[in-house]
Amino acid sequence: MPAVVVPFVEQDSIVRKIWGKADTVMFIFAGSAAEFALNKAVDWLYFTGKLPADPIGRLFSTVTYARMIIFAERENAYKAIDKITSIHAAVEQSRNAKIPDWAYRDVLYMLIHYSIAAYELLEKKLTAPEKEKVFAVFYEVGERMHLKALPSNYEDWKKDYALHLENDLAKSKFTIDLFKQYKKHLGAFRYYVLIEAQKLLVPKSVHTLLDFGKFSMMNLIIPAYKLCRLIKLDGILKAAVLPEEYKQHIKELDIV
Description:
single chain, 15 helices, globular
């Protein structure tokens, strides 16, 4: 009798809809790139040298890893999460220090917030039960990583996320350098697009810390982009804003 395949995320889950579209994943990446640069623990990735050397690739790999877990069978998802834990343990050993538990939670919280924010920006508002399902998926990831003090539901998470935004973020020399690296690796035009997208995705406190202006060109572009999707012209726009080395990777993200 064949083994029963149990997916990590249910087939009809809103989380699969969110992470099954390349557009949404790109916006999750964009928002995370802004908040991540402000995190007080970002020096850990500067320690390895990987983040400043390839900030786009590093952040993109984090997002694609999360996506791989979401679409995996449960056992394979657990293996992937365990691998992430072991990689971080190796870095801790090299530095002879421990990554703060709150820093792990911060990354998890970013994935929750930007999953919701990106989908609502590009698609439609999520219902309370749908937001709870988004939270539940990443809560299970955190549980598997043995993270402490995780909130048990979406409403409690919102309160804890607000505390994180207040306590764990600051504009630092790493923030300034990371944004310089984003511009260097993306080029002036793509960097401009990134910033304009971030303005619509980040929480108010992140917006303030990064000195973002109130107006975003994305308010004008997104309605036009949605129309382009309907008439199948969105590929032209994606080609214009994506670095060449990521175009195939982005194309492969479209599942639903």
